[in-house]
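Intended use. Records like the one below are meant for learning the mapping from a protein sequence to its folded structure. Do not use them to infer anything beyond what is encoded.
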Amino acid sequence: MKNNKTITLILITLMVLSSCNKVEKLEVEVYETSANGNKLTQLTDFATNKNAISIKLLPEEKFQTITGFGGAFTESSAYLLNKLSEENRKKIIDAYFSEEGANYSLTRTHMNSCDFSLSNYSYTPVEGDKELEHFTIHEDKDDLIPFIKDAMAASKDGFKIFGSPWSAAPWMKDNNNWVGGKLLPEYYDTWALFFSKYVDAYKEEGIDIWGFTVENEPMGNGNNWESMHFSPGEMTNFVVNHLGPKLEADGKGDLKILGYDQNREHLKEWVDSMYKDEASSKYFAGTAIHWYASTYEVFPEELQYAHNKAPEKLLIQSEACVDAEIPVWQDDKWYFEKEATDWGWDWAPEKDKYLHPKYAPVNRYARDIIGCLNNWVDGWVDWNMVLDKQGGPNWFKNWCIAPVIVDSEKDEVYFTPLYYTMAHFSKYIRPGAVRIGFENTDENLQVTAAQNPDGSIAVIAFNEGDEDKTIELALNDKSTNLTISAKAIQTIVIAN
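Structure written out for the chain above:
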Protein backbone atom coordinates (compact mmCIF):
# COMPACT_ATOMS: atom_id res chain seq x y z
CA MET A 1 0.00 0.00 0.00
CA LYS A 2 2.80 2.33 0.96
CA ASN A 3 4.57 1.56 -2.33
CA ASN A 4 1.41 2.35 -4.32
CA LYS A 5 1.12 5.72 -2.59
CA THR A 6 4.77 6.50 -3.33
CA ILE A 7 4.36 5.59 -7.01
CA THR A 8 1.23 7.73 -7.25
CA LEU A 9 3.04 10.72 -5.73
CA ILE A 10 5.95 10.28 -8.13
CA LEU A 11 3.59 10.14 -11.12
CA ILE A 12 1.72 13.25 -9.99
CA THR A 13 5.03 15.10 -9.47
CA LEU A 14 6.24 14.09 -12.93
CA MET A 15 2.96 15.23 -14.49
CA VAL A 16 3.17 18.60 -12.72
CA LEU A 17 6.79 19.08 -13.76
CA SER A 18 5.99 18.10 -17.33
CA SER A 19 3.12 20.57 -17.37
CA CYS A 20 5.33 23.33 -16.00
CA ASN A 21 8.03 22.69 -18.60
CA LYS A 22 5.67 22.42 -21.58
CA VAL A 23 6.15 25.25 -24.09
CA GLU A 24 2.94 26.89 -25.23
CA LYS A 25 2.25 27.14 -28.94
CA LEU A 26 2.85 30.53 -30.51
CA GLU A 27 -0.11 31.49 -32.69
CA VAL A 28 0.92 33.05 -35.99
CA GLU A 29 -0.32 33.94 -39.46
CA VAL A 30 2.11 33.20 -42.28
CA TYR A 31 2.19 34.77 -45.76
CA GLU A 32 4.63 33.79 -48.50
CA THR A 33 5.75 34.86 -51.95
CA SER A 34 7.96 32.31 -53.66
CA ALA A 35 9.38 30.99 -56.89
CA ASN A 36 7.00 28.01 -56.58
CA GLY A 37 4.02 30.26 -57.20
CA ASN A 38 2.93 31.71 -53.86
CA LYS A 39 1.88 35.38 -54.07
CA LEU A 40 1.45 36.71 -50.56
CA THR A 41 -0.33 33.41 -50.00
CA GLN A 42 -1.42 32.48 -46.48
CA LEU A 43 0.11 29.18 -45.37
CA THR A 44 -1.29 26.93 -42.65
CA ASP A 45 0.35 23.52 -43.13
CA PHE A 46 4.06 23.03 -42.58
CA ALA A 47 6.44 20.12 -42.88
CA THR A 48 8.57 19.47 -39.81
CA ASN A 49 12.30 18.97 -39.68
CA LYS A 50 14.45 18.13 -36.66
CA ASN A 51 17.16 20.48 -37.93
CA ALA A 52 15.07 23.59 -37.46
CA ILE A 53 16.57 27.06 -37.58
CA SER A 54 16.02 28.87 -34.31
CA ILE A 55 14.70 32.44 -34.41
CA LYS A 56 14.17 33.94 -30.98
CA LEU A 57 12.46 37.32 -30.83
CA LEU A 58 13.75 39.89 -28.35
CA PRO A 59 11.07 42.61 -28.13
CA GLU A 60 12.87 44.30 -25.24
CA GLU A 61 15.63 45.26 -27.72
CA LYS A 62 14.30 48.29 -29.57
CA PHE A 63 15.81 50.16 -32.50
CA GLN A 64 14.45 52.72 -35.01
CA THR A 65 10.83 53.78 -35.41
CA ILE A 66 9.48 53.07 -38.88
CA THR A 67 8.33 55.96 -41.09
CA GLY A 68 6.84 53.81 -43.84
CA PHE A 69 7.15 51.93 -47.13
CA GLY A 70 5.90 52.76 -50.59
CA GLY A 71 6.65 54.02 -54.08
CA ALA A 72 6.78 57.11 -56.26
CA PHE A 73 4.11 59.01 -58.14
CA THR A 74 5.65 59.78 -61.54
CA GLU A 75 4.16 61.33 -64.66
CA SER A 76 4.94 58.10 -66.54
CA SER A 77 2.90 55.99 -64.11
CA ALA A 78 0.06 58.50 -63.94
CA TYR A 79 -0.14 58.78 -67.74
CA LEU A 80 -0.41 55.00 -68.10
CA LEU A 81 -3.12 54.74 -65.46
CA ASN A 82 -5.17 57.27 -67.40
CA LYS A 83 -4.95 55.06 -70.50
CA LEU A 84 -6.43 52.03 -68.74
CA SER A 85 -10.08 51.20 -68.17
CA GLU A 86 -11.58 52.60 -64.99
CA GLU A 87 -11.77 49.04 -63.66
CA ASN A 88 -8.05 48.36 -64.10
CA ARG A 89 -7.03 51.83 -62.96
CA LYS A 90 -8.95 51.30 -59.71
CA LYS A 91 -7.57 47.77 -59.39
CA ILE A 92 -4.00 49.06 -59.41
CA ILE A 93 -4.59 52.01 -57.09
CA ASP A 94 -6.44 49.80 -54.60
CA ALA A 95 -3.67 47.21 -54.83
CA TYR A 96 -1.13 49.79 -53.76
CA PHE A 97 -3.07 51.93 -51.29
CA SER A 98 -6.06 50.11 -49.82
CA GLU A 99 -5.95 48.27 -46.52
CA GLU A 100 -6.63 45.05 -48.42
CA GLY A 101 -3.73 45.77 -50.76
CA ALA A 102 -0.12 46.78 -50.06
CA ASN A 103 -1.29 49.74 -47.94
CA TYR A 104 1.57 52.06 -48.94
CA SER A 105 2.38 54.64 -46.26
CA LEU A 106 5.37 56.64 -47.60
CA THR A 107 5.56 58.07 -51.13
CA ARG A 108 7.62 60.35 -53.31
CA THR A 109 6.96 62.53 -56.33
CA HIS A 110 9.06 64.71 -58.64
CA MET A 111 8.98 68.52 -58.64
CA ASN A 112 9.33 69.79 -62.21
CA SER A 113 10.01 67.06 -64.74
CA CYS A 114 12.27 64.06 -64.28
CA ASP A 115 13.53 61.26 -66.49
CA PHE A 116 10.20 59.48 -66.00
CA SER A 117 8.24 62.38 -67.39
CA LEU A 118 7.02 62.58 -70.96
CA SER A 119 8.93 65.82 -71.63
CA ASN A 120 11.01 68.50 -69.93
CA TYR A 121 8.93 71.06 -68.02
CA SER A 122 9.15 73.48 -65.11
CA TYR A 123 6.71 75.18 -62.74
CA THR A 124 8.68 78.38 -63.39
CA PRO A 125 8.41 78.88 -67.14
CA VAL A 126 9.11 82.63 -67.24
CA GLU A 127 12.82 83.48 -67.42
CA GLY A 128 14.05 85.97 -64.84
CA ASP A 129 10.92 85.63 -62.68
CA LYS A 130 12.82 85.79 -59.37
CA GLU A 131 9.65 86.27 -57.29
CA LEU A 132 7.96 83.36 -59.12
CA GLU A 133 4.85 85.37 -59.90
CA HIS A 134 4.17 82.97 -62.78
CA PHE A 135 4.64 79.76 -60.75
CA THR A 136 2.21 77.09 -61.94
CA ILE A 137 1.69 73.35 -61.50
CA HIS A 138 -0.64 73.04 -64.48
CA GLU A 139 1.64 70.35 -65.99
CA ASP A 140 0.69 68.05 -63.08
CA LYS A 141 -3.07 68.50 -63.29
CA ASP A 142 -3.89 66.07 -66.09
CA ASP A 143 -2.15 62.97 -64.80
CA LEU A 144 -0.05 63.29 -61.65
CA ILE A 145 -2.45 65.08 -59.31
CA PRO A 146 -5.47 62.87 -60.16
CA PHE A 147 -3.28 59.82 -59.45
CA ILE A 148 -2.32 61.17 -56.02
CA LYS A 149 -5.92 62.13 -55.19
CA ASP A 150 -7.25 58.71 -56.16
CA ALA A 151 -4.56 57.10 -54.00
CA MET A 152 -5.61 59.30 -51.09
CA ALA A 153 -9.22 58.20 -51.56
CA ALA A 154 -8.21 54.52 -51.52
CA SER A 155 -6.02 54.82 -48.42
CA LYS A 156 -7.69 54.31 -45.05
CA ASP A 157 -4.80 55.58 -42.92
CA GLY A 158 -3.36 58.06 -45.42
CA PHE A 159 0.27 58.29 -46.47
CA LYS A 160 3.17 60.71 -46.34
CA ILE A 161 4.40 62.28 -49.57
CA PHE A 162 7.69 64.05 -50.17
CA GLY A 163 8.78 65.92 -53.28
CA SER A 164 12.15 65.84 -55.03
CA PRO A 165 13.42 68.22 -57.71
CA TRP A 166 15.65 66.84 -60.48
CA SER A 167 16.53 70.32 -61.77
CA ALA A 168 15.58 73.95 -61.57
CA ALA A 169 14.48 75.57 -64.83
CA PRO A 170 17.51 76.09 -67.11
CA TRP A 171 17.38 79.89 -66.69
CA MET A 172 18.36 79.50 -63.02
CA LYS A 173 21.49 77.43 -63.80
CA ASP A 174 25.03 78.23 -64.82
CA ASN A 175 24.83 76.09 -67.98
CA ASN A 176 21.28 77.12 -69.01
CA ASN A 177 20.43 73.46 -69.54
CA TRP A 178 18.12 70.84 -68.03
CA VAL A 179 21.04 68.46 -67.67
CA GLY A 180 23.97 69.07 -65.30
CA GLY A 181 25.17 72.48 -64.20
CA LYS A 182 24.69 74.26 -60.88
CA LEU A 183 22.13 76.62 -59.43
CA LEU A 184 23.38 80.19 -59.78
CA PRO A 185 23.94 81.82 -56.36
CA GLU A 186 21.73 84.74 -57.35
CA TYR A 187 18.81 82.32 -57.52
CA TYR A 188 19.29 80.55 -54.18
CA ASP A 189 16.45 82.54 -52.59
CA THR A 190 14.27 82.06 -55.65
CA TRP A 191 14.84 78.32 -55.49
CA ALA A 192 13.95 78.27 -51.78
CA LEU A 193 10.75 80.16 -52.64
CA PHE A 194 10.05 77.45 -55.24
CA PHE A 195 9.67 74.83 -52.47
CA SER A 196 7.30 77.03 -50.47
CA LYS A 197 5.15 77.81 -53.49
CA TYR A 198 4.99 74.13 -54.39
CA VAL A 199 3.56 73.29 -50.96
CA ASP A 200 0.92 76.00 -51.31
CA ALA A 201 -0.04 74.96 -54.83
CA TYR A 202 -0.48 71.33 -53.87
CA LYS A 203 -2.39 72.25 -50.74
CA GLU A 204 -4.85 74.14 -52.97
CA GLU A 205 -5.39 70.83 -54.74
CA GLY A 206 -6.13 69.12 -51.42
CA ILE A 207 -2.72 67.43 -51.15
CA ASP A 208 -0.52 67.94 -48.08
CA ILE A 209 3.22 67.62 -48.61
CA TRP A 210 5.16 65.96 -45.76
CA GLY A 211 8.62 67.02 -46.84
CA PHE A 212 11.32 67.18 -49.50
CA THR A 213 14.66 65.92 -50.59
CA VAL A 214 16.79 68.92 -51.53
CA GLU A 215 17.93 67.53 -54.85
CA ASN A 216 17.68 64.17 -56.59
CA GLU A 217 21.18 62.80 -57.15
CA PRO A 218 23.19 65.99 -56.51
CA MET A 219 26.37 64.30 -57.74
CA GLY A 220 24.77 63.96 -61.16
CA ASN A 221 23.64 61.04 -63.30
CA GLY A 222 26.31 61.03 -65.97
CA ASN A 223 24.63 64.05 -67.57
CA ASN A 224 21.90 61.91 -69.09
CA TRP A 225 18.66 63.47 -67.88
CA GLU A 226 17.48 66.29 -65.64
CA SER A 227 20.06 67.03 -62.96
CA MET A 228 21.57 69.86 -60.92
CA HIS A 229 24.83 69.47 -59.06
CA PHE A 230 25.59 70.32 -55.43
CA SER A 231 28.65 69.55 -53.37
CA PRO A 232 28.01 68.54 -49.74
CA GLY A 233 28.99 72.02 -48.58
CA GLU A 234 26.84 73.75 -51.19
CA MET A 235 23.76 71.76 -50.25
CA THR A 236 24.31 72.39 -46.54
CA ASN A 237 24.72 76.10 -47.23
CA PHE A 238 21.53 76.20 -49.32
CA VAL A 239 19.50 74.45 -46.62
CA VAL A 240 20.92 76.32 -43.62
CA ASN A 241 20.89 79.81 -45.13
CA HIS A 242 18.05 79.72 -47.64
CA LEU A 243 15.61 76.78 -47.74
CA GLY A 244 15.25 76.15 -44.00
CA PRO A 245 14.81 79.82 -43.03
CA LYS A 246 12.38 80.41 -45.92
CA LEU A 247 10.11 77.52 -44.95
CA GLU A 248 10.29 78.59 -41.32
CA ALA A 249 9.41 82.20 -42.20
CA ASP A 250 6.44 80.99 -44.28
CA GLY A 251 5.04 78.92 -41.41
CA LYS A 252 6.21 75.66 -42.92
CA GLY A 253 8.97 74.81 -40.46
CA ASP A 254 7.43 71.40 -39.73
CA LEU A 255 8.16 70.14 -43.26
CA LYS A 256 10.86 67.47 -43.38
CA ILE A 257 14.04 68.34 -45.28
CA LEU A 258 16.10 65.30 -46.32
CA GLY A 259 19.65 65.86 -47.52
CA TYR A 260 21.84 64.02 -50.00
CA ASP A 261 19.47 61.66 -52.00
CA GLN A 262 21.97 59.53 -53.88
CA ASN A 263 23.92 56.27 -53.56
CA ARG A 264 25.10 55.00 -50.20
CA GLU A 265 28.81 54.65 -50.83
CA HIS A 266 29.26 58.44 -50.48
CA LEU A 267 27.15 58.81 -47.35
CA LYS A 268 30.00 59.64 -44.99
CA GLU A 269 31.15 62.85 -46.69
CA TRP A 270 27.58 64.11 -46.98
CA VAL A 271 26.47 63.46 -43.41
CA ASP A 272 29.75 64.91 -42.16
CA SER A 273 28.76 68.16 -43.86
CA MET A 274 25.07 68.08 -42.96
CA TYR A 275 25.61 67.20 -39.31
CA LYS A 276 28.90 68.98 -38.72
CA ASP A 277 27.46 70.95 -35.81
CA GLU A 278 24.18 72.17 -34.36
CA ALA A 279 23.95 75.06 -36.83
CA SER A 280 24.48 72.90 -39.91
CA SER A 281 22.07 70.17 -38.81
CA LYS A 282 19.28 72.45 -37.58
CA TYR A 283 17.05 72.25 -40.64
CA PHE A 284 17.83 68.71 -41.79
CA ALA A 285 15.24 66.17 -40.65
CA GLY A 286 17.30 63.36 -42.11
CA THR A 287 19.14 61.80 -45.02
CA ALA A 288 17.81 60.18 -48.21
CA ILE A 289 19.66 57.43 -50.05
CA HIS A 290 19.46 55.30 -53.23
CA TRP A 291 20.59 51.73 -53.87
CA TYR A 292 22.23 51.90 -57.32
CA ALA A 293 25.84 51.52 -56.17
CA SER A 294 25.52 47.74 -56.05
CA THR A 295 23.14 44.92 -56.91
CA TYR A 296 23.82 43.09 -53.64
CA GLU A 297 25.72 45.27 -51.13
CA VAL A 298 23.61 47.37 -48.73
CA PHE A 299 26.69 49.28 -47.46
CA PRO A 300 26.02 48.58 -43.76
CA GLU A 301 29.08 50.49 -42.54
CA GLU A 302 27.91 53.64 -44.31
CA LEU A 303 24.36 53.27 -42.97
CA GLN A 304 25.65 52.69 -39.45
CA TYR A 305 27.93 55.70 -39.78
CA ALA A 306 25.04 57.93 -40.90
CA HIS A 307 22.91 56.78 -37.98
CA ASN A 308 25.66 57.23 -35.42
CA LYS A 309 26.43 60.69 -36.77
CA ALA A 310 22.85 61.81 -36.11
CA PRO A 311 20.89 59.13 -34.20
CA GLU A 312 17.77 61.26 -33.91
CA LYS A 313 17.53 61.99 -37.66
CA LEU A 314 15.60 60.08 -40.32
CA LEU A 315 17.38 57.72 -42.72
CA ILE A 316 15.17 56.99 -45.72
CA GLN A 317 15.79 54.92 -48.81
CA SER A 318 14.11 57.23 -51.34
CA GLU A 319 14.53 55.44 -54.67
CA ALA A 320 15.19 51.95 -56.01
CA CYS A 321 14.30 50.04 -59.15
CA VAL A 322 15.47 47.33 -61.50
CA ASP A 323 17.15 49.66 -63.96
CA ALA A 324 18.55 49.14 -67.47
CA GLU A 325 16.04 46.32 -68.06
CA ILE A 326 12.92 45.93 -70.17
CA PRO A 327 10.21 44.20 -68.09
CA VAL A 328 9.62 40.52 -68.66
CA TRP A 329 5.89 40.22 -69.30
CA GLN A 330 3.83 37.69 -67.31
CA ASP A 331 6.78 35.44 -66.50
CA ASP A 332 7.07 35.22 -62.71
CA LYS A 333 9.97 32.79 -62.97
CA TRP A 334 12.31 35.44 -64.45
CA TYR A 335 12.00 37.64 -61.36
CA PHE A 336 13.45 34.87 -59.19
CA GLU A 337 16.40 34.04 -61.45
CA LYS A 338 19.77 35.77 -61.77
CA GLU A 339 19.24 37.21 -65.22
CA ALA A 340 18.95 40.97 -64.59
CA THR A 341 21.77 43.46 -64.96
CA ASP A 342 21.94 47.14 -64.03
CA TRP A 343 23.62 50.28 -65.35
CA GLY A 344 26.79 49.39 -63.50
CA TRP A 345 27.13 46.18 -65.50
CA ASP A 346 28.41 48.35 -68.35
CA TRP A 347 29.24 51.69 -66.77
CA ALA A 348 31.00 50.89 -63.51
CA PRO A 349 34.77 51.38 -63.46
CA GLU A 350 36.74 48.15 -63.49
CA LYS A 351 37.44 48.34 -59.75
CA ASP A 352 33.70 48.45 -58.99
CA LYS A 353 32.36 45.95 -61.51
CA TYR A 354 32.25 43.21 -58.87
CA LEU A 355 29.42 45.14 -57.22
CA HIS A 356 27.22 44.66 -60.30
CA PRO A 357 26.83 40.96 -61.12
CA LYS A 358 23.69 39.44 -62.61
CA TYR A 359 20.98 39.20 -59.99
CA ALA A 360 17.41 38.04 -59.34
CA PRO A 361 15.10 41.08 -58.98
CA VAL A 362 13.13 39.61 -56.06
CA ASN A 363 16.35 38.78 -54.25
CA ARG A 364 17.66 42.30 -54.69
CA TYR A 365 14.52 43.87 -53.23
CA ALA A 366 14.20 41.47 -50.30
CA ARG A 367 17.91 41.59 -49.39
CA ASP A 368 18.04 45.35 -49.57
CA ILE A 369 14.95 46.13 -47.55
CA ILE A 370 15.88 43.66 -44.81
CA GLY A 371 19.49 44.87 -44.82
CA CYS A 372 18.37 48.48 -44.64
CA LEU A 373 16.01 47.84 -41.75
CA ASN A 374 18.70 46.00 -39.83
CA ASN A 375 20.99 49.03 -40.27
CA TRP A 376 18.75 51.83 -39.02
CA VAL A 377 16.89 52.79 -42.19
CA ASP A 378 13.34 53.79 -41.20
CA GLY A 379 11.65 54.24 -44.60
CA TRP A 380 11.97 52.53 -47.96
CA VAL A 381 10.50 53.94 -51.19
CA ASP A 382 10.42 52.20 -54.56
CA TRP A 383 10.53 54.11 -57.85
CA ASN A 384 7.73 54.01 -60.52
CA MET A 385 4.58 52.19 -59.46
CA VAL A 386 3.42 51.44 -63.01
CA LEU A 387 5.31 51.12 -66.32
CA ASP A 388 4.52 49.68 -69.73
CA LYS A 389 5.91 46.56 -71.41
CA GLN A 390 8.85 48.60 -72.72
CA GLY A 391 9.71 49.93 -69.24
CA GLY A 392 8.49 53.46 -69.97
CA PRO A 393 7.23 55.76 -71.23
CA ASN A 394 9.78 58.47 -70.57
CA TRP A 395 11.49 61.11 -72.64
CA PHE A 396 15.03 59.77 -72.16
CA LYS A 397 14.09 56.13 -72.82
CA ASN A 398 16.05 54.74 -69.88
CA TRP A 399 13.89 51.68 -69.44
CA CYS A 400 13.23 50.27 -65.97
CA ILE A 401 10.94 47.77 -64.26
CA ALA A 402 8.06 48.62 -61.93
CA PRO A 403 6.19 46.22 -59.62
CA VAL A 404 3.13 46.59 -61.85
CA ILE A 405 3.42 46.40 -65.65
CA VAL A 406 0.56 47.26 -68.02
CA ASP A 407 -0.30 46.87 -71.67
CA SER A 408 -2.44 49.95 -72.10
CA GLU A 409 -3.37 49.06 -75.70
CA LYS A 410 -4.91 45.76 -74.60
CA ASP A 411 -5.93 47.05 -71.15
CA GLU A 412 -4.01 44.28 -69.39
CA VAL A 413 -2.28 44.39 -66.01
CA TYR A 414 0.59 42.25 -64.67
CA PHE A 415 1.43 42.27 -60.97
CA THR A 416 5.03 41.10 -60.94
CA PRO A 417 6.56 39.28 -57.94
CA LEU A 418 8.14 42.64 -57.02
CA TYR A 419 4.71 43.97 -56.10
CA TYR A 420 4.16 41.14 -53.63
CA THR A 421 7.71 41.52 -52.27
CA MET A 422 7.03 45.18 -51.47
CA ALA A 423 3.69 44.29 -49.88
CA HIS A 424 5.38 41.93 -47.42
CA PHE A 425 6.83 45.02 -45.77
CA SER A 426 4.35 47.83 -46.44
CA LYS A 427 1.28 45.83 -45.49
CA TYR A 428 2.55 44.29 -42.26
CA ILE A 429 5.08 46.82 -40.87
CA ARG A 430 3.10 49.97 -40.26
CA PRO A 431 4.22 53.57 -39.56
CA GLY A 432 5.22 53.94 -35.94
CA ALA A 433 6.38 50.33 -35.68
CA VAL A 434 9.65 49.77 -33.84
CA ARG A 435 12.26 47.35 -35.10
CA ILE A 436 13.08 44.77 -32.44
CA GLY A 437 15.95 42.41 -31.78
CA PHE A 438 16.20 38.71 -32.55
CA GLU A 439 18.59 35.77 -32.49
CA ASN A 440 18.94 33.72 -35.68
CA THR A 441 21.01 30.53 -35.92
CA ASP A 442 21.21 30.52 -39.74
CA GLU A 443 23.25 33.32 -41.29
CA ASN A 444 21.93 32.35 -44.75
CA LEU A 445 18.34 33.09 -43.73
CA GLN A 446 17.83 36.85 -43.74
CA VAL A 447 15.51 38.10 -41.02
CA THR A 448 14.11 41.31 -39.60
CA ALA A 449 11.32 42.01 -37.12
CA ALA A 450 9.24 44.94 -35.93
CA GLN A 451 6.51 45.54 -33.38
CA ASN A 452 3.58 47.59 -34.65
CA PRO A 453 1.78 50.32 -32.69
CA ASP A 454 -1.11 47.88 -32.05
CA GLY A 455 1.32 45.46 -30.35
CA SER A 456 1.43 42.91 -33.16
CA ILE A 457 4.82 41.71 -34.37
CA ALA A 458 5.82 41.17 -37.99
CA VAL A 459 8.77 38.89 -38.69
CA ILE A 460 10.05 38.87 -42.27
CA ALA A 461 12.36 36.12 -43.47
CA PHE A 462 14.00 35.65 -46.85
CA ASN A 463 15.31 32.29 -48.04
CA GLU A 464 17.49 32.87 -51.09
CA GLY A 465 18.57 29.22 -51.24
CA ASP A 466 17.33 26.31 -53.33
CA GLU A 467 15.97 24.25 -50.42
CA ASP A 468 13.08 24.71 -48.01
CA LYS A 469 14.00 25.58 -44.43
CA THR A 470 12.26 24.74 -41.16
CA ILE A 471 12.07 27.51 -38.57
CA GLU A 472 11.38 27.31 -34.86
CA LEU A 473 10.10 30.77 -33.94
CA ALA A 474 10.09 31.66 -30.24
CA LEU A 475 8.66 34.59 -28.32
CA ASN A 476 8.95 34.57 -24.53
CA ASP A 477 7.69 31.14 -23.41
CA LYS A 478 5.87 30.29 -26.64
CA SER A 479 7.12 28.82 -29.89
CA THR A 480 5.96 27.36 -33.18
CA ASN A 481 7.47 25.48 -36.10
CA LEU A 482 6.96 26.47 -39.70
CA THR A 483 8.56 26.07 -43.11
CA ILE A 484 9.77 28.68 -45.58
CA SER A 485 9.99 27.58 -49.19
CA ALA A 486 13.09 27.78 -51.34
CA LYS A 487 13.50 31.17 -53.03
CA ALA A 488 10.84 32.75 -50.89
CA ILE A 489 10.06 35.77 -48.78
CA GLN A 490 7.78 35.20 -45.83
CA THR A 491 5.98 37.42 -43.35
CA ILE A 492 5.01 35.92 -40.00
CA VAL A 493 2.46 37.93 -38.04
CA ILE A 494 2.03 37.50 -34.29
CA ALA A 495 -1.16 39.19 -33.09
CA ASN A 496 -1.15 41.29 -29.94
